[in-house]
Amino acid sequence: MILPFELDPQIIHHIIHHQAGSIGKAIIELIMNSVDAEAKSIKITMTKEGFTCQDDGKGFASKDDVINYFGRFGTPHQEGDATYGRFRLGRGQIMAHAYTTWISNTFNMSVDTKKMGYNYDLSELEDGQPGCHINGTWYDKLSETELMSTLQEIRDLVRYTPASVELNGKTITRDPSAEKWDFEDEYAYYRVRLEGAVSIYNQGVLVRHDSSHLWGAGGLIVSKKAISLNVSRTEILRKTCEVWKVIAKEFQTLVDSITENLISKRKTEARREKSVRSLLSAEGNLREIFRHEEVITLVSNRHVTLEYFFHRLKYEYKRKCCVVENDYDVPKAETMARAKLAMFVHPKTMARFGAYTPGQFLESLETVLENVNEYYESINYGVTLNEEVTLIDFQRLSESFIERLEILKEKDVLDRETIRVWTALRWCLQQYAGACLGKRMHRDGSLVYGEDKFEIFVGYSNTAEAWTDGSSYIAFNVDLVKKLKGDPIKTASYIFNVLEHEIAHEGDSLGAGHDEAFYQRYHDISLRMSSERQRYMHKWLMKYTYSLEYEGKKSKGLAWSERLLIDRVGNGREKKGLGRPIEDVSNDPIVQAHVPSENSEMIDLINAGFNQRGLQPDHSQWERILEESVYTPKPAADNQDEEDDDDADYFEILNRMDQEWEEEKARVAALIGIENNASNQEILYNLAHLEDEELLQIWNTCYVEINGRYKFIMDVEDSNESSLEEQEREPDLFSVIDEKYHHLIQEGETLWSIERNAAAAGFFRLPDYLKWRSGQ
Predict the structure, then answer these.
(1) Which of 283, 454, 684, 686 has the highest count of CB atoms within 10 angstroms of its CB?
(2) What is the pLDDT of residue 92?
(3) How many CB atoms lie within 10 A of CB 264?
(4) What does the pLDDT read at residue 77?
(5) How far apart are CA 209 and CA 219, in angstroms?
(6) Exposure of 239 by Cβ count < 10 A (0-12 exposed, 13-18 middle, 19+ buried)?
(7) Which residues pair with 515 in a beta bridge?
């Protein structure tokens, strides 16, 4: 006997309450229904009490249409008769939130799921209205925050619909044909950006954001033809949708062509992630990627190629590599990296390779080498890579590593000629540091008396070329200072740059990392002070050569040659009636001034502090420490087969428990009428596994809604709204979001509303959502 399948009435409950959940998504379903009805104009008004939605579409033509297409869920559309719809399910979402009346032509439908259950009241009007007019009254009045958040959600998700959408008197949709695109064909509009996600709109309605590493760039796709989606319209059926296959191929070609010329100048994170995916999956020209794509990031935030990485690892670090797992360990790793103990890899590299432990990263490198070698063999390249890597455990090395610091006295570590050039340079560096910091300066470039100044010292460090406490001194490593004797011009120029680097830290540089803000400060100082740096270099050169002249030294050496060249150029220009290339500083106070002796008392005081902190020099047995710090993954147990069986049983139990928990959450959410989402998980957990009557009693007596969130209280009568709002007050929005994004925040928005809309639009990070929303 052949019998038809049947639908339980509870399926209607599921369709109405569990499709999406938010009011914004429900309104968007109404908009899509209007477009399917060939509407050209859709007007929506929304208040805290309710909403209206009216369009100029064709509406319901007959009573049979109402019964078949409004009263029945799941009636399929015929091919080509709808832009978005497939099974006429979406309208049910609004019925979970509001009592609604629908007027279309001469038909009036009323739906009140709380009073009428899953039934509707149909009547016919003498004077009907064309199109479809929907009036709704919220079952639960919206708070001001909920209203603003819902309005923003609608603006975010509906941008390029074929019909013009007006929300509270303002048009929120755009005509894609009126905008400038990188490319357009019969399937879609395309726009490429170097950074950010790829936002994908199905005929004007947002579907999802693809991560940029999937494409190698960010951008925007607005399809002209319907893309096949899953039931919840949140994912593209990429393997089976023929329209999407054409769009994806065209967009990838566009990305490659647009970024090809730019990529040599600016290699983006999206490009790096895409290159790693190619290496791991053996796709593309692996030889070019291995040699030219910067897929490894060192702790200094420098991006390097795999070829460079393995070459330096082999010849400079004896194949020793240390992978840093956490961002907060980067400053310590930078310090150890300066000691040349191993090649330190930034945590973002591990994430880029999809690894969660250093051992997994090493396995990924082995996979990459295997793929590259197979590619070389396929093209008869004649090269085989055999790169062994010794992985150093960061925690073990960090526990053994101690930074060694000491301020040295010039006469104890420098010879006479080095002291001569260093003394002149030390004086000019002190004045130049004041200029970089914006101290009060005389017109001649010297510090005003009484201004705080940095003392300049010679020091010893096993990690740094220079360091500073950020307020009183800057010390330069003695090994760097000693180079002044053999090559004074180049070394002095380099030391000026190192001074700018230390000042850019704006504080103690010991253990400090180098973030984006630091590099911006260093960049600004280097540009702003470039001409002044040259003046102070000239003053130092003049002061140094004068000191040689006073002792009757012969005119020889690099310093003499440099000064002679300057004089010769100056004389040549003056004969042509031109000014000197460098001003005459022979009588400059900085050149003529007597240089004070180094501050011995301050040196002793600083060293005493180093001694108390255990930072005084002590030659460590680094080879032994490195050997003891070799990374060793946890050994596999001998009874692996038995453990596998136990794991299988354990995971089966977990999966069953997860399934039961999801079913229980859905039951509780449906019973009390709230969304089964992340923000309500605590409520669902507290009310789970209770009988219906007890559950409803607790819900009605112990929970109140404040600013869109549900708050548990012990006694409603002893509570008042103002005190509850005080308890529920959320963190300040502007303190949570970085200052550089404050201008993207709209008036009246709260942290909760932005978090909610970011999640609805598919973003995990609030700054990414704010930038996307503003079109940046």
Answers:
(1) 454
(2) 66
(3) 9
(4) 45
(5) 10
(6) exposed
(7) none
Give residue 81's pLDDT band: very low, low, confident or very high (50, 70, 90): very low
**Percent of the chain whose predicted confidence (pLDDT) is above 70:** 76
Closest residue by Cα to residue 203 from 179, 227, 186 = 227
CA dihedral 640, 645, 651, 655 (to 10 degrees): 160
Q: Hey, what are 725's tokens?
A: 């709002």
Mean pLDDT of the chain: 77
Strands 41-46 and 50-55: antiparallel
Q: Is-contact 441 447, C-beta < 8 A?
A: yes
pLDDT band at 639; cut points 50, 70, 90:
very low
CA dihedral 623, 629, 633, 639 (to 10 degrees): 90
For CA atoms 178, 183, 184, 190, the dihedral sign is negative
Q: Cα(213)–Cα(276) distance, rounded to whole angstroms?
A: 9
Can you tell me the distance from the alpha carbon of 258 to that of 219, in angstroms, rounded to the nearest whole number?
12
Mean pLDDT computed over 529-554: 75
Q: What is the mean pLDDT of residues 27-38?
A: 82
* C-alpha to C-alpha distance for 706 and 697, rounded to whole angstroms: 19
SS3 385: coil
Task: Determine the residue type at 317.
Answer: Y
More confident residue, 752 or 466: 466
SS3 451: coil
pLDDT above 70: residue 500:
yes
pTM, full prediction:
0.49
**CA-based nearest residue to 767, from 748, 744, 733:** 744
User: Please, is 733 exposed, middle or buried when counting C-beta atoms within 10 Å of its C-beta (0-12, 13-18, 19+)?
Assistant: middle
Distance separating alpha carbons of residues 127 and 24, to the nearest angstrom: 31
Q: 100: which strand partners?
A: 111, 136
Q: Is 31 exposed, middle or buried (0-12, 13-18, 19+ CB in 10 A)?
A: buried
Please tell me the distance from the alpha carbon of residue 289 to that of residue 307, in angstroms, as a whole number: 9
Query: What is the per-residue pLDDT across 733-771, written as a single tens digit (0 to 9) for each?
Result: 777 787 788 888 887 777 777 877 777 777 777 888 888
Rounded (5°) CA angle 234-240-246: 90
User: What number is the average pLDDT over the span 95-102?
Assistant: 84
Q: Is the pLDDT of residue 65 over 90?
A: no
At 192, which helix (H) or strand (E)?
strand 188-193
Distance between CA atoms of 376 and 640, rounded to whole angstroms? 37
CA trace torsion 86, 87, 90, 93 (10° rounding): -160
- Cα(762)–Cα(756) distance, rounded to whole angstroms? 10
Residue 456 — φ and ψ, nearest 5°?
-110, 125
Please give the pLDDT value at position 344. Answer: 92
Estimate the share of the chain in helix, then strand, then coil, as percent rounded to the nearest 5: 50, 15, 35
Structure confidence by residue, pLDDT tens digits, 321-371: 999 988 888 888 887 887 788 899 999 898 888 888 888 888 889 898 888
Q: Are 236 and 244 in contact (CB under 8 A)?
A: yes
The alpha carbon of residue 425 and the mean position of all alpha carbons in its chain are separated, in whole angstroms, by: 43
Phi, psi of 469 (to 5 degrees): -90, 0
Nearest Cα to Cα of residue 605 among 736, 734, 413, 473 = 473
pLDDT of residue 630: 78
Task: Please tell me the distance from the alpha carbon of residue 670 to that of residue 137, in angstroms, as a whole number.
Answer: 20
Distance CA 1, CA 51 (A): 50
SS (H, E, C) 21-86: CCHHHHHHHHHHHHHHCCCCEEEEEECCCEEEEEECCCCCCCHHHHHHHHCCCCCCCCCCCCCCCC
Tokens of 597: 């002796």
Checking DSSP bridges between strand 198-202 and strand 218-223, what pairing results, if any?
parallel
